[in-house]
Amino acid sequence: MLTTRQGIRPLGPADLDAFLRLVALDPVVNVFADYRARTTSLEPRWLGGEMWGRYAEGELVAACHVGANLVPIGADEDDARAFGERALTRGRTVSTIVGPQDAVRSLWHTVAGVWGRPRDVRWNQPHMQLDGEPLVEADPHVRRTTRADLAEVYPACVAMYTEEVGVSPEHGGGAELYRARVLQLMSRGWSFARFDESGRLIFKAEVACASPHAAQIQGVYVVPDLRGRGLASAGMAAVAQIVRREIAPVVSLYVNDWNTPARRAYERVGFVESARFSTVMF
């Protein structure tokens, strides 16, 4: 039902074309929303939540993904406040608020007094992208992983997630669901790794989501004892080449501003900052 005061209503399959026009205004930043729309046709039962749209003079001007993540899309600060006010009517059901910095900040300030203290807040996360050839030589040993690699890939995914987020993805009985996600990425050809001569995984990265316009990388990880040796730069150069050749023309990611080694590695590869993201985690 349309909320007249805010011009917000849940979107559905009939709104798909309008939604794709909205995300196409910034297709690299909006790759997650674009991917979700194309894979679900905005059907709530496939989304596992809702996609809200905000209208002005009959035109879709902003949206917000409401599932495990609350993600503002094409939203200015006023749009984000409106989405936050709507979110307050249903209580907190999300584990993160993530997206462009100004919109996330406005949305969070709207709900903060009710939703309580977050587990972590990361206000400054450079969003970086690469739309050409890498500036460093790609590691020729990086390859797609398969189910046969699971014994090495899965522990590395858990280690990376725990190091990045501060809590294990297996916490609270989440191991089965997380393992299924790792296998899903493998089956799509979205999981990449390098293994040493003994078969030990020493570098990995995954594609989190992709559209015809862009692919977003997640889970970049180098084993601790081999960090500082250029594995991340060479590995990411290899991943970027494969992704640009076979999945999408632009490769993107976002990184914590305090993670200087990672930022330098991406810059060496040729990634440039194109936006700022923020993440609020519960």
From TrEMBL:
CDD domains assigned: NAT_SF
Coiled-coil region: none
SUPFAM superfamilies per record: Acyl-CoA N-acyltransferases (Nat)
UniProt domain N-acetyltransferase: residue ranges: 140-282
Pfam families: Acetyltransf_1, DUF4081
Protein name: GNAT family N-acetyltransferase
Taxon lineage: Bacteria, Bacillati, Actinomycetota, Actinomycetes, Propionibacteriales
